[in-house]
Amino acid sequence: MASGSQPQPSTPTPSGADDKGFQSWRRRFSLITGLGLSETDKAARTTEAQCKQCEKWKYDLLHYSPAVVFMFQQLRHIGSKVTPDHLVCTPCGELQAGGFLPTSGAIVLCQGKFIHKKHMESTIVHELVHLYDQSKFKVDWDNLRHHACSEIRANSLSGDCRWSREFFDRLQPNFSKQHQVCVRRRAIQSVAANPRCPDVAAAERAVNEVWESCLNDTRPFDEFPPM
User: Fold this and answer.
1) Domain identity same for 75 and 115
2) Are the CB atoms for 139 and 153 separated by under 8 Å?
3) Based on the number of CB atoms within 10 Å of its own CB, is 16 exposed (0-12), middle (13-18) or buried (19 or more)?
4) Is the peptide bond before 220 cis (omega within 30 degrees of 0)?
5) Do 122 and 145 sit in the same domain of this protein?
6) How far is 143 from 121, CA to CA, in rounded Å?
7) Beta strand pairing status for 106-110 and 87-90?
8) Which of 116, 115, 109 is nearest to 94 (CA)?
9) Would residue 12 count as lying in a domain?
10) Which of 127, 151, 204, 223 is catalytic?
11) What pairs with residue 88 in β-bridges?
C-alpha cells in the first residue's frame, strides 16, 4: 500500500443463508423494475400484468356496467346459460380486441389490446349481441346475410360507433351520419373476413341487403342505447 493512502472498505459477499436472501431480494427487485430480466422474463411479466388488468376491468364491468349487466340478464331470459367464465382474457395475435366463438359460446378478450375500460365495455357488449343473436335467432355464420345482420346490430348497439370512439381512438371523424358510416364500415370489414366471403364486394352486398331491417332492430334494448 502506498504511503499515506487509506484502506478502502471491501464490499461484503453474501454467502450461505445470506446469499439465498440476497438472490431472492434481487429477483424481486428485477420483477418490480424490469432491470436484469431476460427478454423471456420481460415478456412473461408483461403478459401477467396485462392479464391482471384485463381480469380487473372484466370484473368491474360485469358488476357495474349497466349495458353488460343488462345483456347478461337478457341472455338468461331467453335461456342462454352464459356465465362470467364465458369471457376469457387471453393474449391475441390478431389486431382485434375481442371475438366470439360460435361453437363454444366463448367470448375472447384480447388482453393488452384495450385502450381504456370503456373500450373493453363496448367490446364485451358487441360480442354479447352476437351471442344473443345466435341464442335467439339461430344465426348461421356461414350465411353472409346472417353474419352481416349480426355485425350491423353489434356495432350499432354496443357503443363501438359512438362519436368519441371514432374521433379519438380511431381518428375517423365523420360529422354527417357518423353512426351509420361507422356501423357500415365495420360490418363490411367483419363480413369480408368470413372464410365464406369471396371478396369485399360480396361483403358490401350482404350488408346492403339487410341494412335497413337490421340497423333498426334494437333487441334486446327497447331503443338505441345512449352513446
Assistant:
1) yes
2) no
3) exposed
4) yes
5) no
6) 28
7) parallel
8) 109
9) no
10) 127
11) 108
